[in-house]
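Journal club side-thread
Mid-discussion, someone asked how the predicted structure for our own chain would compare to the paper's figures. Pasting it here so we can look after the session.
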Amino acid sequence: MFQGASALNLDAKGRMSIPARHRDALALQCEGSITLTKHPHGCLLFFPRPVWETHREQIAAWPMSARSWQRIFLGNASDVEMDSTGRILIAPELRAAAGLSRDVMLLGMGSHFEIWDAAKLAESEAAAIATGMPDVLSNFSF
């Protein structure tokens, strides 16, 4: 179960270091084999490969009426390997699609991560707060 936010930097080649607290879990769960793909909200999805393979099968089985969504998720999927120092290389096409610059945020979302441009995530969160909680969360409390 991945959770928490990490402020990270992309290097000049588009590599991102995975935080140490997640490296061991990723090494055990998927031996550093990761899949990245686009998300329509403007971020990237980062899956341990076995988790992605389950999603990939589900997405591939979608009906023809969802072909455009298959293109977004499957057509943009990129398999990457974590290197010996715990870095992954994010392809230029995916960096451009998510508007990733130097400052990025890695968010643990349970079974996977989201990778956001730091400024874009701040804007998205501010917009969500301004909109208020959706009705589906009306009974939620801490």
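Post-session note: Residues 2-133 form a domain with the Chemotaxis protein chec fold (CATH 3.40.1550.20).
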